[in-house]
Amino acid sequence: MPSLIKCHEYPVLVDYNGWALQDFDDTQVPMLFPEGFEGDTFLAAHPGRLDFLSAGHTHTASLTVELWDEEPEPPAGDWDETASARIACSSGKLRATGVAGGPMPWTIELSRGMGVWLVRVVCAGRAEVFTQAQRGVVHGVERYVAQFWPEA
What is the pLDDT at residue 58? Predict the structure, then answer.
């Protein structure tokens, strides 16, 4: 039975409809975000990074990160998007970054060193943030849950 190791919520500053999680050791990321960001897929995996397409141009989204010991059940609820990916992380930590805003001041610690992780990401609030972000900067309307577990 899967066990939740830790869970934490983070604010994500989205700009130009995009953001990414990338290896904290950016020397291990061949293309730093936003290079190669295509903005046409909800979740796109690149070496050392995960790119996200947001439904809102400029806003603060909510990201809940769950770290599991093995694959968990998907989060309960109604989700607008669901996607899965794989990421190799040489530092054991991820940093969020915006398209123009750059790195955010917090990190996600997955492990103490190199690891390969599977992730399932779900998102809700996309239609609402699309509408509301056209009238101003909104906070917490678009919500992501990212479930990480080690690759077997």
Answer: 95
Exposed (0-12), middle (13-18) or buried (19+): which is 93, by Cβ within 10 Å? middle
Strands (E), 90-135: 93-98, 102-109, 115-124
75 burial level (CB within 10 Å; 0-12, 13-18, 19+): middle
Backbone Cα Rg of the chain: 14
Does position 114 have pLDDT exceeding 90, yes or no?
Answer: no
Instruction: Supply 143's token pair.
Output: 């919500």
What pTM, to 2 d.p., does this model score?
A: 0.96
Domains of the chain, by residue range, sit at 4-150
Specify the fold of 4-150: Substrate Binding Domain Of DNAk; Chain A, domain 1 (2.60.34)
From residue 78, give the alpha-carbon distance in Å to each of 25, 108, 144: 35, 25, 12
Q: Are 20 and 97 in contact (CB under 8 A)?
A: yes
Q: Could you tell me what percent of the chain has a pLDDT over 90?
A: 93
Express each pLDDT in 81-109 by its tens digit.
Answer: 999 999 999 999 999 999 999 999 999 99
Greatest Cα pair distance in the chain: 45
